[in-house]
Amino acid sequence: MSATASRTIADTLVYPYLNHAVAMYEEGYASREDIDAGMRFGCGLPRGPLAVVDELGLDRVRDALAELYAQTGDVRHEPRPVLDALVAQGRTGRAAGAGFYTYAAPGSDEVVPDESTPAPAGADEHVRTVETVGVVGSGTMATGIVQVFAQAGYPVTYVARTQDKVDAVRSSISRGLDRSVEKGRTTREEADAVLGRLTGATSRDALADADLVVEAIAEDIDVKTELFTDLDRVCRDGAILATTTSSLPVADLAAVTSRPQDVVGMHFFNPAPVMRLVEIVRTDQTAQDVLDTVRTLCARTRKVPVSCADRSGFIVNALLFPYLNDAVRALEEGHGSAEDIDAAVVAEHEYPMGPFALLDVVGLDVSLAIQRELLAEFGHPGLVPAQRLVEHVEAGRLGRKTGSGFLTYTK
Q1: Whole-Å CA distances, 41 to 19, 51, 269, 277, 326
Q2: What are the DSSP calls for 29-74, one per residue?
Q3: Is 87 a residue whose pLDDT tops 90?
Q4: CB-based contact 38:279 (threshold 8 Å)
Q5: What are the C-alpha distances in Å from 204 to residues 84, 228, 229, 237, 332?
Q6: One domain, residues 336 and 280
Q7: 299 with 363, same domain?
């Protein structure tokens, strides 16, 4: 693939993703800081999308999108009005000293506060007291969340369906801590202290005194609503009930409780002990002190919290998976091989991996399910899952976990 072709295919994939991030900001769905932090810490990208638009130049991005829109007619490619508005104000990006962000001087990369900069977090008197944490679930995500809180010093009561699963959670955390001790990342005393904060149970009644309960069970609305109905019975007044769902409406879970103001989304990323991002998802009824408490709690567990409203995909998945789906379409249309497209994106935009390598890591079945959820939520024809993605899933080529996806792997 020539240098020109590499730049063309990379830009064709990345510019619509940038436009989608601009739309999120324009609609007030999330702040510029949270959108950028979401993609940096949720996907490992070197820069957030709005910072990238500032670097490239808003006028350049706008014009490139206009050309793409003329070619495709896809509404996702139509430049967002805020690009025109900012350009008209002279806020054309970093080179001008202002774009989505304001900079110390034209050409500087130092961001300085402006009228859109979020206010500093308030004092702790506006948050609820969280001294004990409960976790429901025994899978990889639940186990990771238990470890995150225990390592941050919180006593954690976790509930699994059977004693075998309770024991498996503790054993998994213990093995991970042993490896950390062997590598010198923690001491034996610290590891033993973490294990000492764990209490396993098979009854949800064990959560009666928890200040915060996080569920990390099957991504099934019926299973989750049954759980939230029971947590409403079990948990004390004022306890915060959090869901780690990545796709289901948080409001639907809040609706089966008598305390919708206490229900919030806390979308951790896998593996939870390693990934720093947590998406805090608010419903129309979530109390402000609940949001403030969860944001403070994330900071205390060394996580990076970002806030958004309750709709499919939240920040990260809503931006990431349409880009991945577009990459599959580009492959179908003959713009290059999976390897060529991956190399182009990595070379031209400094992403840590290309879209096909990432699809294979995530799992093609997971990617297809999320893409279908986004299509159901937003209804854009451009979100219809690419046919080759569907075909790979139907053939059992799910990515690294099966040894082949868009790429092939050796054991």
Answers
A1: 20, 14, 9, 5, 22
A2: SS-HHHHHHHHHHHH--SS-HHHHHHHH-HHHHHHHHHHHHHHH--
A3: yes
A4: yes
A5: 54, 11, 12, 16, 49
A6: no
A7: no
Q: Is the peptide bond before 155 cis (omega within 30 degrees of 0)?
A: no
Q: Is 20 one of the annotated active-site residues of the chain?
A: no
In a domain? residue 411: no
**Same-domain check for residues 282 and 360:** no
Same domain, 92 and 49: yes
- Residue tagged active-site, from 19, 138, 246, 307: 246
Catalytic annotation, pick one of 20, 77, 267, 392: 267
Of the candidates 279, 312, 325, 367, the residue annotated as catalytic is: 279
Type and span of the H or E element at 263: strand 263-268
pLDDT tens-digit readout, 309-339: 999 999 999 999 999 999 999 999 999 999 9
Residues 280 and 213 in one domain: yes
In angstroms, the first-to-last Cα distance of the chain is: 29
Total domains in the fold of the chain: 3
Main-chain dihedrals φ then ψ at residue 406, nearest 5 degrees: -80, -20
* 2 part of the active site: no
Q: How far is Cα 109 from Cα 54, in angstroms, rounded to an integer?
A: 10
Residue 411, pLDDT above cutoff 90: no
Contacts of 293 (CB under 8 A, 6+ apart): 127, 128, 130, 212, 240
Beta carbons within 8 Å of 191's beta carbon, 6+ residues apart: 177, 178, 180, 181
pLDDT tens readout for residues 30-76: 999 999 999 999 999 999 999 999 999 999 999 999 999 999 999 99
Cα 78 from chain centre: 25
β-bridge partners, 201: 159
Examine the residue annotation and report whether 19 is marked as an active-site residue of this protein.
no
| Chain-centroid distance, C-alpha 293 | 19
Q: Within this chain, do residues 292 and 341 fall inside the same structural domain, yes or no?
A: no
User: Which candidate in 317, 325, 335, 367 is catalytic?
Assistant: 317
Q: Are 97 and 106 in contact (CB under 8 A)?
A: yes
Strand (E) or helix (H) holding 281: strand 277-282
H-type alpha helices, 132-220: 140-151, 163-182, 188-196
Q: What is the arithmetic mean of pLDDT over 75-83? A: 96
> 204 in a domain, yes or no?
yes
On whether both 46 and 185 belong to a single domain, the answer is no
Of 107, 109, 129, nearest in space to 51 by CA? 109
Structure tokens at 242: 């959090």
Q: Which domain holds residue 261?
A: 124-309
Q: Which two tokens stand for residue 186?
A: 């923690």
Within 13 Å and on the Cβ side, how many CA atoms surround 102? Answer: 7
- Does the global pTM surpass 0.90? yes
